[in-house]
Amino acid sequence: MNKPISFQTILDGDGRPAFVVVPYDEFVKRFENEGDLVPDAVVRLVFDDAMSPAKAWRTHLGLTQSEVAKRMGVTQSAYAQLETSSRLRKGSRENIANALGISSSQLDF
């Protein structure tokens, strides 16, 4: 049997539930099986600024193309071509993800 979750309900001006606050550990447990999440800031860079997912993650993490390329063992220009590719091969996506410290599924959206 599942342990009940302790939470707090915040009501709006009319007395209706508007928000629920749950302990962080419970929040993490709830989403740990949902796959790898992508921060809102990264999603916004992709959709609002028309960046590739790889460039959005790199920008979000504050890395340069040269830093990511070095981690991958390729030249900056080779990485730049990968970063702008509209269709990365699975192996390339995995290599970029490893260099960024994220999962490859976080680049696949």
UniProtKB/TrEMBL annotation:
Residues in HTH cro/C1-type domain copies: 55-107
SUPFAM superfamilies: lambda repressor-like DNA-binding domains (SSF47413)
Alphabetical list of InterPro entries matching this protein: Cro/C1-type_HTH, Lambda_DNA-bd_dom_sf
Designated name of the protein: Helix-turn-helix transcriptional regulator
Record Pfam families: HTH_3 (PF01381)
